Amino acid sequence: MKNQFPVGTRLLSGRQIIMETHAHHLHKSPGHGWKHYFFEFFMLFLAVTLGFIVENLREQYVERKRGQEYVRSLYEDLKTDTTRLSLIIRSDAIKIAALNGMSSCYDTVMKNLLSTSCMGELVKYSKTNASFAMTDRTTRQLANAGGFRILNKEDADSILSYENAFKIYQDFQATLFQTAQDNVRNTLNQMASFKVNAPIQSFAVALGPDTSSSRLSGPLLFTDDKVLLNKWFNELALYLRVTIGQQAILGRLYRKTSSLIEFYKNKYHLE
Asked: Which pTM was predicted?
């Protein structure tokens, strides 16, 4: 019987046929239904969503901690401010008490232009002013770093309210107070003897009461111009009024800083 298979054909046994058929089935890809694809999509969506939520919670936690650090820093700034305000208010009280004696001094000098010893006290307490500068370390950081957005509204509003109160004081200082101060100085320079005036003009730039001497070494007036002298006392009276006004503004600022300290102390349990 002739060979019915082409030359080179390898004959397989029954066992080999079964094994190769089995291997062929193993290499076939299993079917993927819609449930399988939906499950994979759902798991991917869940992983992305959970990752987003975790990252969002982490950012909220970090920002909350940063906000509390800002508040703690502001709390320390406010304590510094209350100390400064207290010193200036006390200094203004001493100044006001001294300047309140100007009326009797006016009568004395107008009667005798050589009797100027009482003017030494008036010159001492009108020659300079201890101004208040808010400690803005934290507020500058908040503004530069966009930190106000991470504070809750109550905290942010309290800080802005304090800044606004300070700006009212700044405006008062730069306009009414500074003008009154300059007027008193300029008129005094026109009528005061250099030799007598110069020694009592020295002062140390510092907060708190002025400890320099008010004792004159001789008659203060270089001129007998009573019109000029009268002008100086009028300007001194205005200076007294603006000093009283400044003390009132600083008093309100002091009460605001004190209330903010208590607010943050109680809210965040600060010491």
From this structure: 0.75
